[in-house]
Amino acid sequence: MGTIEPYETAAGRRYRVRYRTPNHRQTTKRGFRTKRDADLYLASVEVSKAKGEFIEASAARERLGNLGTVWLASQTHLKPSSLRPVEVAWRVHVEPVWGAVAVGDIRHSEVQSWISKLGASRGATTVLRAYGVLAGILDVAVKDRRLSSNPARGVNLPRKVRKKHVYLSADEVSKLAAASSERALLILVLSYTGIRWGEAAGLRVADLDLKRGRINVVENAVEVGGQMEVGTPKSHKQRSVPVPQSLTVPLRRACIGKQGSDLVFPGADGDYMRRTRVSAGSRSWFKTALANSDLPAMTIHDLRHTAASLAVSAGANVKAVQRMLGHASAAMTLDVYSDLFDDDLDDVATRLDHVLAKTDVAKMWSAGEPR
């Protein structure tokens, strides 16, 4: 147990609490006006020590900026394309506001106020990402026993509204491919296989198994901050994607004279394809092709949605679409593309109607004799 000692100050008698931390280091807390206040504080210290919840005052005084730098460096599990927006959120939104604040001084109400102000000028994606950085740093502070709880948890956050998907028909895909000149095959592959841009950029001749009609997705190449980052596909999972038979012939032609390690869709310099923009200040070839085809505004990633739509319209079930797109589960596919399976709901209603029509209740109703 600790001890309580009185001492005199210009403002009158005060009380000092002496106690030992869990690591047996002696420390003090001064300034209590009454012995009762000192007793209560000492009791709370002993209870927190017994429960393993003791927080040293010096640990809570660590500035969030120092912890944030360490936290950011620990995010090695993130791919470069995922890490970059996190770094931007920290540098632009979190560090300027919270960097100089001691973690023990951060209050729930202050975090809520920050979220509300940020949401007034930024979109939900930006706000949620910035919040995730702050909350993640404070989660580590709790685990490191700098805080007893995370003051960022439980605040009201903006809802992220999912952008409406753009789906092209098969005829519209053909028009877009024709308007894309030498990139026509790329457009068709993206639209009928659902592989991502980075997966197409990293696709090598050896990854094609055209006898089986398969693309083996094993590499991803994306441009991050002007640099090409090459690694595994999203979620680090390789997958085999079906290729329509009609695309195997042009794919074979595209591989003539190439080695297994050569890229199927190289950039102009023979290296990995970069973003769709041709040069600084110019209109991208993809937007130009869209305009020339009289098609709605969309991103090249929307061709992945088109692939899902074409697969469903061709009769593919949700499990097949999940495997093609590389989603973690069929539930995720249904969540992302629930609008594509409306016909399945109509089919359920039709089948249930056949069952209901055979019951006595349905026969009575059809005879105009409901009870």
Write a brief structural summary.
This protein has 371 residues and is mostly helical.
Question: Could you name the key traits of this structure?
Answer:
371 residues, 48% helix, mainly alpha, 3-stranded antiparallel beta sheet
Provide the fold topology.
Blueprint: E1 3-9, E2 12-20, E3 26-32, H1 35-51, H2 57-60, H3 64-73, H4 80-98, H5 108-121, H6 124-143, H7 170-179, H8 184-193, H9 197-201, E4 208-209, E5 214-217, E6 220-224, E7 227-231, E8 239-242, H10 245-254, H11 285-292, H12 302-313, H13 318-325, H14 330-336, H15 342-357, H16 360-366
Antiparallel strand pairs: 1-2, 2-3, 4-5, 5-8, 6-7
Helix pairs in contact: 3-4, 3-6, 4-6, 7-8, 7-11, 8-12, 13-14
Overview of the structural elements:
With 371 residues, the protein is mainly alpha-helical. Helices cover 48% and strands 12% of the residues. The protein has 16 helices and 8 strands. It has helices at residues 35-51, 57-60, 64-73, 80-98, 108-121, 124-143, 170-179, 184-193, 197-201, 245-254, 285-292, 302-313, 318-325, 330-336, 342-357, 360-366; strands spanning 3-9, 12-20, 26-32, 208-209, 214-217, 220-224, 227-231, 239-242. The strands form 3 sheets. The protein has a 3-stranded antiparallel beta sheet, covered by helices on one side. Strands 4-5-8 form a 3-stranded antiparallel beta sheet. Helix 3 crosses helix 6 and helix 7 (170-179) packs antiparallel against helix 8. The model has no long low-confidence stretch (mean pLDDT 89).
